[in-house]
Specification:
The chain has no helices and eight strands. With 98 residues, the chain is an all-beta fold. The protein has a four-stranded antiparallel beta sheet with strand order 1-8-3-6, with no helix packed on it. It is elongated, with a radius of gyration of 13 Å. The mean pLDDT is 90.
């Protein structure tokens, strides 16, 4: 996914809790440095993206997986500071459970 703001990684599902097990991040050069923030989980996670971007990519494995903060709650990723140029790409893997 390509984004410059907030994107849902794992959608809210009634009676189910989302889990984020891994993700891959790649970024072009950005006009403004920023942070990526995973929200909607019991433990927060963030990483900084400099103006040079992450051209070689970054593979992140959560072991144990990041657990959704509650049932029927989406897990989102937010780009804290929007950049006028460049793009951030994210692939995410996860599952639903109790």
């Amino acid at each position: 996914m390509l984004f410059r703001s907030t994107v849902t990684l794992i959608a809210a599902v009634a009676s189910q809790r989302g889990y984020l097990s891994s993700m891959q991040i790649m970024s072009e050069a950005l006009a403004t440095a920023s942070e990526l923030l995973v929200a909607g989980t019991t433990v927060g996670w963030r990483t900084k993206i400099t103006t040079a971007g992450i051209p070689g990519g970054l593979n992140v494995v959560f072991d144990p997986p990041l657990r959704g903060s509650a049932v029927n709650t989406a897990i989102t990723i937010n780009m804290v500071t929007a950049s006028a140029t460049g793009a951030v790409y994210v692939n995410a893997q996860g599952f639903y459970g109790n």
